[in-house]
Design brief:
- This protein starts with 5 loop residues before the first helix and ends with a strand.
- About 13% of the residues have low confidence.
- The chain is 59% helix and 2% strand.
- The chain has a three-stranded antiparallel beta sheet with strand order 1-3-2.
- It is globular and about 60 Å long.
- It is built from 17 helices and three strands.
- β2 and β3 form a beta hairpin.
Amino acid sequence: MKLKPTAGIAFARLDERIARSPVGDGWIERTHFTDACASLWIDGELVHLEDLVLHDATRDIRTPTHELTIARDVLRTRRRIAGQLPDWALSPDGICTLRNTSEITSASTDEPQTAAGIRRAVAIEPDGEGEDNNDVENLPGVDYAAIDAVLARSNAAIEEAKRPVRTGASSRSAEKDPMIYDLDWDEDARLEEWRSALRQTQDLPAVLQAIIALDVWNELSVLQHAPWLGRLLAASILRQTGVTTGAHLAPINTGLKTIPVDRRRHRDRETRVLAIAHGLTAAAEIGLKEHDRLALARTLMERKLEGRRTSSKLPELVELVMAKPLVSAKMVAKTLDVTPQAARRIVLELGLREMTGRGRFRAWGIL
């Protein structure tokens, strides 16, 4: 089996273009979102990009689903790996940290979970975009003290689950629930076997290292509830070995999404390896096309800034639109420090494309 180094060449072209581009930072931020959604697609789940963007900005328009929570974990893990040194993710401490955080579904947000927080979360304006509704602060027949007590116990249980496992009685209390975990699934042994296979590929080309590491991870099924972590670790191999720059993670999920599932999960190892290689090449090519599209969109929007006053909010809106695949009136109002009504007016001046098509909740983006 012979693999052409097309993926490495394509990633080198992509890195060179991003490093010199004015939309490089926006491309990286948007890639985090699209790759997180693609990761869920590969695992057989569907998460809409707009839902993930709004959930990340704590501007949900509906109750977050379990799949959306996983996508948020993938998004945050990508950002965490990209924010560390290139060799951190594959170090013993990095793998341990990523493994533990991937197993804990965090229910926390930027705001503490209190009854007041719930009242603000469920306060939906008539048009979905106006000022916060303060009329729900004291709903009749609702015992907010009891709600706060339940949430306090829940937060205490979550914090207890996050603590390191100890020996003796504490270890027995921290045993995994057999209704959720397969108790015969030895993740430690599988992880060590995967790391052993990774050490055996150190003399191979970087792209081939990432391909083999991902294939072995999938075959071993290292983590029961976090198969997506293996793809991020494979992207970390490309970053650590210098195939991609330290500024971003390769959007491996986006590329693998284009490969048919029967090829990605084929019984023949050679077929699977070739499928992953084609997925890496597709990831770089898609990244190049997305960068060119963003660069063209930015050029067109900058033409509308000519002749504007120095106090105009349009330049800030351009930067926000470049960094987010979707922006709502509340997101624009919060970033630009204007009212929701002024935010809608500024969006219309920039000429963005409305994505939702609903009067109750409106959001805009670049197609």
